Amino acid sequence: MRRRPIPEATVGRLPIYLRALLDLAESRGETNVSSDELARLAGVNAAKVRKDLSYLGSYGTRGVGYDVEYLLYQITRELGLTQDWPAAIVGIGNLGRALASYKGFSERGFRITAIFDVDESVIGEEVGGMIVRHLDELKEVVAEMGTSIGIIATPPLAAQEVADKLVDAGVKSILNFAPAVVNVPPDVTVRKVDLSIELQILSFYQQRTQAIATAREANRRLRNQHGAG
Amino acid sequence: MRRRPIPEATVGRLPIYLRALLDLAESRGETNVSSDELARLAGVNAAKVRKDLSYLGSYGTRGVGYDVEYLLYQITRELGLTQDWPAAIVGIGNLGRALASYKGFSERGFRITAIFDVDESVIGEEVGGMIVRHLDELKEVVAEMGTSIGIIATPPLAAQEVADKLVDAGVKSILNFAPAVVNVPPDVTVRKVDLSIELQILSFYQQRTQAIATAREANRRLRNQHGAG
DNA sequence: TAACGCTTGTGAGCGTAATCACAAACCGAA
DNA sequence: TTCGGTTTGTGATTACGCTCACAAGCGTTA
Fold first, then answer.
1. DSSP string spanning A169-203?
2. Do A121 and A64 share a domain, yes or no?
3. Closest Cβ opposite residue A189 in set B99, B194, B202
4. Most distant CA atoms of chain A, gap in Å
5. Looking at residue B222, what is its pLDDT?
């Protein structure tokens, strides 16, 4: 099965398995795990776990399960987490500051190595142990530090311009928190995290269930009335 | 076509169209837009735009396009954004603070109406114009304010417990920023935003393209050597 | 009114992802 | 070595989403 390309959907779940496995290894010291248990920890079903892992190769043992350490290593390697990918944040507002000190990044081996803004009142300030630099220095700093990931945390209007500068500086992976669509060349990967879109999606489902409940209620009343009349 | 349920994938794009339409209405004062232009603004293709919009009903005019204001209204209504959904944030660390003052929420009509933590040194503090309350007050405050959305911004270990409390308080929509899987009853919707997972996915693709580049390079050298030999 | 250019709405086809279900393989016990 | 219990790996099936391509319908012009 190996060397079929790993499906996107699977790539999205590997980090979840990774975290579950780390928990298992650290807290319980488990050496083995079944697809059933891993599925429970990851909040998916067991068949999906097995199929996902099968894309990496046959790393399980029938009748036994998967060796936690070995699987950890394989997923880590497949995700490219054996090397480190220095990241830079552009836009040091509320969100940028929070990201600069976000512990979840360093825990997964991502180092924020530089932070940028254009606001003179922010430049030179220390945030998360780093000094805020002017965006004009981006290209130079990226080259110097081998930055491979750019994180956009600017207002929406600045996002495209910042993306262009990141691309120009040679960055091939961008995580965009600005609520705006950014266009990049095909060899650059952009992922978008849009906080208010998430709320809007929640709103949709909430409204729908509420509408259903209201309709049921109306129906019930109508039936009762009819039965009574 | 109406009254087929709207596919999840479409729901996820409606907020993007919404934003594009708002931009059109505000900045250009355009009254009409074609699926082609909307597609360009949203970063998708025109057929997808048309199919997505067709789930809402036939709101376009052949040969002309869509009326911006009318479409805006329909999407807003479909997403349930005509009413407001008070939200509460639990966990006032770096991320919680940033979210509490995040302008993107209010711009899309979401109001954060209460913020919670368990750390006594944080309780009582003012963040984003609100006073941090103790998590124990959650149920009471949710009832009082009609809170419908819960935002979890705690460390991973606390996430499940907070989710349980939100569910117990009657919240049906949860946005989870903690890097942990949370389980909820089937009538509750959870959406997850996991920042380090996004970076790990970027890492995967970055590593892959880098591996390809390296392999090409090796191949090239090999061929050259062969040609020379 | 008729003809033409433009844009929507959607059926059909295709590719990807999820799920099912079971043979293959392993371990331990007898 | 054989048997029984267990769990993986994967072909087959189903569901879902995307894209294509074109008929249907609108507005405009003559």
1. TT--EEEE-SSS-----TTSEEEE--HHHHHHHHH
2. no
3. B202
4. 83
5. 66
Q: Are A89 and A116 in contact (CB under 8 A)?
A: yes
Q: So what's the pLDDT on residue B30?
A: 73
Same domain, A94 and A177: yes
| The dihedral formed by the CA atoms of B171, B175, B179 and B182, expressed in degrees to the nearest 10 | 30
Chain C: bases < 7 Å from a protein Cβ: 5-11, 16-21, 24-27
pLDDT in tens, B119-136: 999 999 999 999 999 999
Examine the domain organization and report whether A104 and A158 are in the same domain.
Answer: yes
**CB of A55 under 7 A from strand D?**
no
| One domain for residues B189 and B91 | yes
Amino acid at A218: A
Structural domain range at position B55: 8-78
Q: Kindly report the CA angle at A171 between A168 and A174, in degrees rounded to 5?
A: 115
Taking all residues of chain B, what is their mean pLDDT, rounded to a whole number? 93
Which of A4, A112, A203 to substitute to test the interface with B, most B CBs within 10 Å? A203
| Chain A contacts in chain B segment 62-91 (CB below 8 A) | 78-81, 83, 85, 87
Which of B38, B198, B210, B216 to substitute to test the interface with A, most A CBs within 10 Å?
A: B198
Task: Give residue-wise pLDDT tens across range A140-151.
Answer: 999 999 999 999
Measure, in angstroms, how far nucleotide C15 C1' is from residue A65 CA: 32
Nucleotides of D under 7 A from a protein CB: 5-11, 16-21, 24-27
For residues B225 and B143, membership in a common domain is answered with no
State the total domains in chain B: 3
At A106, the amino acid letter reads S
